[in-house]
User: Fold this.
Amino acid sequence: MSGLVKFGSTFLCSVMQAPQLRPEAASSIAEGVDHLYFVLTFITLFFTIAIFSTIFIFMVKYRRRAENEVPPDIEQNLPLELAWTIIPTLICAGLFLWASSLYFENSRPPSASTEIFVIGKQWMWHIQHPEGVREINELHVPEGVPVKLTMTSEDVIHDFYIPAFRVKKDVIPGRYSSLWFQATKVGTYHLFCAQYCGADHAEMLGWVYVMSPADYETWLASGTPSQTMEKTGEQIFNKLGCASCHQPDGPGRGPSLVGVYGTEEELQGGGKRLVDEAFIRQAIINPNSVTLRNYPPIMPAFRGQINEEQVLQLIAYVKSLASEERNSNGK
Amino acid sequence: MSTATLDLHEVPTGSRVNYLNAQYGVKSWLLTTDHKRIALLYLASITLMFFVGGFFAVLMRLHLIEPQGALVQPETYNKLFTMHGVIMVFFFLVPSIPATLGNFLVPMMIGARDLAFPKLNLLSWYIYIIGAIFTLYAVISGGVDTGWTFYTPYSSSFSHTSVIPTALGVFITGFSSILTGLNFVVTIHKMRAPGLTWFRLPLFIWAIYATSIIFILGTPVIAITLFLLGLERLLHIGIFDPAIGGDPILFQHLFWFYSHPAVYIMILPGMGVMSELITCFSRKRIFGYGFVAFSSLAIAFISFLVWGHHMFVTGQSIYAGLIFSVLSFMVAIPSAVKVFNWTATLYKGSISYDAPMLYALGFIGLFTMGGLTGLFLASLATDVHLNGTYFIVAHFHYIMVGGAVMAYLGGIHFWWPKITGRLYPDGWARFAALVIFVGFNLTFFPQFMLGYLGMPRRYAVYPAEFQVLNVMSSAGASILGIGYLIPLIYLTWSMRYGPTAGPNPWGAKGLEWQTPSPPPTENFEEIPVVTEEAYDYAHTTVTRG
Assistant:
């Protein structure tokens, strides 16, 4: 039995080496997904061949030999019916458990992820690193480090797809979606938009560059803009006059934003909400939908006033306020 | 099966009055309430739509021969795949078997003279035609480029093409489906011949019954969804567009709540046809009648609960993903049960290789592959990689073209002598079945590979490394296109020049074979009395004639 398993896995590995059957596997989850894929392929081939050859054998063996032939009456066979109901059910249950646990693992980013921001826009990808470096249709990431992408769209639904990493997630206007991966191989890989988004959908593509961590640091340092996202966010914060109400040490007309990220706040009309990226975005774009308790609903809505990139920069700034506060508490 | 006393061979077909020659003239067709004539009206209209939709597909495949696109601008390509999808799904596949074969056969198979509501039946066809005119108008007025899925907010706020006429066409056609479904359900409940109990019904009737339930329950949802889409586009009510406070994912939930069951609208009637063909050409009772019948109902029921598997990568919660995944695996089981039972029906049978049987065997093979590749998409971890790629395109074409269209053609070939009273050249028909089988596999098998390699669907241009597989697929498409033209030619030819068919050229059981070909307007001289189960080939010899 163990010999059989060993033979099976060796065979699987040799098939997986064949070129042109799978794209390059360049992330920590790719091999796991490929194993499942090839096992599914074998199940498909097995049953297809089994059905085809059974039909073929029956067709030859039981071909009509005389025009008035009357074949025997066979109605049904309960054990057989149960067998071919239960065996596929067991196979499906096994596949479900395997695929789901793999998905479960693959969906959860490790906590110490580097965060990069992605904005989809007809028909290009805007990418911003927290350090301030911006890219269009290119994504540079370090090898061996978990990277978390936080993504949104300026217009329609896009989909961020890196086949070599076996990851894909819709990029949806008005929401943040996230995706994580850990690249395992230095190289250049396709980046596709996988959700139809209009005229130049097929041109909304780019390249992912996986670099060694040292190269990545050099690359980050050599990028043109030297200002971090939170710094840009602070400038926007001041330019829009946010600080006149949201004073750092309270009590302005709006709540202080220091230390607010990651806490739970009580809303007007009851209920609590976790202050995360989505909440902050909503509070900027459509503030009256999330007015806090004990504060008047007087904040103007910034929908249409600022773009998604600026919202992300503001969020980066608000998050930085939180961490400064925690740092000073620690002291 | 019945006690029809009429000697069918005495009256030569040419001089006998039947539903085709009972009346002449355009008016006699356009105002007919005869279910058989309405079936032919549908047959002509959906055949036209099939070749319009097919023409778009041929242009797409020609365009994709070169990575940079060989034929049209990306905007045009986007319209081609949209119109191909809209026309094939809503104007060919959904009405295909139910509206043509279903219309013709439901009353004949249950020993009735017509459907329960003959005028409503004619109204269904007119509604279908009005819907089709709107959609064809959209094609002429510049086309539509949203994809057949009409995803918001692209369709509601960004596309500059004829979204409203197209959606209106689909909206209107939906009512034709609802009315047809209603008509079938009432007919099957109330108008079965004496002695024809539920468990003596041919399995085609069970399949049409299950399909009708989906028509009635599912179609209103797509109608509401498209209505809301129209409101959003015209009046900006803020339901789907996040820029004005809407939720674009809500559209996907509503859309797939109908459109996943719609897949079973397309395949269930095909499964019904299979059961008729396999039994007739192996002269066997269906293996496991109860299992095959109830698996249709199980599929219809579960199909309403799996829509979320289209949305695994939209940011749906992990737990919702798990539930939709397990339900999607569950829907595979009754489909597998059917395949095993059909195969087992062949065991110790008396198998003949007439053309309809070749289509039927082609169906089993292609449907098996289509179904099994569905497991890749029900599996969460692999779906993430495969969603939105050519793998999906290949998978649903194996189900809808390899499955539904093969079954449709098999059914048309099987009942053609009954419908027209003429025989077609069997050699050509077998040849066409072979050409279609080969062309189909060459077109769509490479697309599975393209999908895993990561090529997204709906791409007007593509990276050069995908070219070889794309060229193979395009080559297959041209073979497939020819394969579909051959039956069009010989079937049309046979209507005038084909040899006259007897009442039962295949030696089949079933009430529809116990009346002349073509049947008289009232179907049966006397309403038959049924005394035995369906497919009882073992106890009485039926001779071809």
About this structure: The CA atoms of residues 196 and 275 of chain B lie 18 Å apart. The domain at 28-514 of chain B is CATH 1.20.210.10 (Cytochrome C Oxidase; Chain A). The first helix of chain B runs from residue 26 to 30. Chain B has 16 helices and no strands.
